[in-house]
Amino acid sequence: MSEKDIQQQMEAMRTLDEPMPQVGIFWYDPQEKSFFGVCKQELTPKQAEEAADKGLPFINYPHLHRQVWAKEYFRTQATGEPTKFKGDYTQIPRGRVAWNINKFIVFVGKWAKPIEAELAQMIEKEFALPYFEFVYDYHWDLGHGWSGDM
Predict the structure, then answer these.
(1) Does an H or E element contain 3, and which?
(2) Among the listed residues 46, 48, 54, the one whose alpha carbon sits nearest the alpha carbon of residue 23
């Protein structure tokens, strides 16, 4: 097989490559109707099964919004880049994608209800989710976070 044939086969295989579903966090910019500050990691079926076997069926992205916000804030302060990472991180719509027992769940606040259909499409695409359920929780409402954050 020639090098050209190998490259053509590899390219054909890449077109079939589907991204793995991911858990993670995001912020939503209502003016631009887009996500920013997205952090995510793949979740394989093997990881989900191993966690369930260990009695740990909840799989989460390992970092908090406040940690990511602080890191980006200080990075952009040092570089002088324009940034959305300023002010109180809880004042910007945000959410978390996690795996719980047998489904993906997306934690959001009441801010998401008016745009639920649009947001669902964006989340499906961004996190490569085959399905998920929204979980509305007070913690994710604007202005709320972990105690001691404000």
Answers:
(1) helix 3-16
(2) 48
